[in-house]
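Question (not urgent): is this output format expected?
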Amino acid sequence: MASEFDSPTQDLSSNGRVVSLLRPHSSRLVAVLGMLVLLVVADLAPPFAIKVLIDDVFVDSERAQGFGGRGKLLAVLLAGLFISYVTRNTLFYLSRMRALRISEDVCFTLRKRLFDHLQQLSLRYYRAHQPGQVGARVMDDTYKIQSFIQDKFPLLMLSMLKFQILLVVIFLMNPRLAMAAIIILPLQFVTYRFFRAPIRKSHSEAQENLSLAYGNLVEKFLGMEVVKGFNAEARESETFNRAIDASRKSQIKSQRYHFVQKITADLLVGLGTIMLIAYGAFEVINGNMKGGDFMMFFGYVMMLYPAVLEIISGVGHSSKAIASVNRVFEMLEEPVRDERLLVPAEDLAAIHGGEIKIEGVSFAYEDAPEVLHNIHLQINPGERIAITGPSGSGKSTLVKLLPKFITPTSGSLSIGGVDLANIPPRLVRQEMAIAFQEVFLFNASIYENIRYAREDATLDEVREACRLTGADQIISRLPEGYDTNLADFGAELSRGEKQRITLARALLKDTPILILDEATASIDRGSSRAVMDSVFQRMQGRTVLMVTHETHLLDMVDRVICVRDGRISFEGTPEAYARYEPAAFLSSPISKEDRLVEPTMKVNRPIHGAVHLDEGTKSELAEPSPDQET
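Got this back:
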């Protein structure tokens, strides 16, 4: 049965991945293997005891006389059996505990490595993968690897060692009978080869479908307000049912292959047992073998066949574990941003509050039209900039370029004359604090949520940041104040209250550049102006970029940038923007006189304080409409 899983190259790569996981624990694995060898030797005692019982205890023999009689031989035999059972169980306990510790260490290291790696991946990766899918690989796949190392791997090793040792023993006892006993083993190998590929493929499909179902579950729980708001519970139940049904069918398919393989292997064992009894009875009847010798031989073969079945089953489980290993390594091999770039000290100093330049920048998401087109923008240190424009025009995308959440498809960005392409994102983000439009609070205390921006912040510093945004008054009314634990990502707070807290978190970071993406959109008009006044006072002499639809805040900035259809259609003072877009200022605090200030026209590359207009805008301003005159 052909399959992508049949590739020898892929098997080699998969085995290499497993070896890489176990290599740090090689000394402990050797100790486990040593104990398993001793365990196999101890397992040889019962069949040998049966042989002695039949040939030397049930009938008088020279061996019995050598021990002083059959009674004494029986006593020695029973004592030996007792010692063998104590030894077996001691070795079993020690080997399994050692394997348990190895599996826990492997799982711990792998999960830590995965989590650290995932934090280094770009946001593009998370846009392409559901959180639930990623979580399933981190927890579920690593658990399957852990379970295999802990439970199946020791049994597999024990069975393989037992198979090899027993094979040598039975051939030493009676080569002809041994050949009759193992004649079915090649068929067992053929059975394993036939079922290996479909088992591995179906298990991989089952795991992938399970991850999709888990991702669907997490996504819907996070968006439960939307689900309930549109009365879509029945629709989402149907979607989830389809997801788990696909997982169910894949699991059934995987287990069906596994069961058929076991049944086939067991039928072959039955055939081998029948052949062994027939040939062994013939040997005993013809005097070529003692009855006790045959019973010992039969006992070893009865240990050999289950060992073969255990090997086949263990290899089947190893195929499932390898599928999980491959899924985990797919994430580990996902390329990360290069954080090891050597950045000269002078470059780090230059980007600290330096001039921001965006030169000829365009951006498009994968397989989508361009969102930004040839953007040119210069922002001086300490300047307060408002970025406004219609929804979907590219405002948020523009500010996401600066902290390197996304990478421009063309053009360049620089701070202090240093190209951001040469600076690791981590160092760029050290220079910026960001308050997002989509507020996110962790399931932790309010104090921990705000201090997330700066771990060394004191309670007084946290309070001061909250005082500036008005969050302090809200928090003080809560029963436990700053120690109040937020459940369900702060569901007990209104959106405006959460925005005040996240804005306080951004201020606490105390950076040269502050980016506000609709950070006060859910705060009432009068309060948002008071909050921004406090923010601008706190950020005096530092750069602030404010994405906003709130025109009543525009007179608080030095310059307004209007983005339309991914292009800068206007750049100038708030007063000039009032003339450019008068309808937006009908209820604005900017005075009528300010609105009538004539904007300065500029067609060339924009500079601070100038207006950059497209052709349509210039024609509109050349002939004011009746509304504009009013």
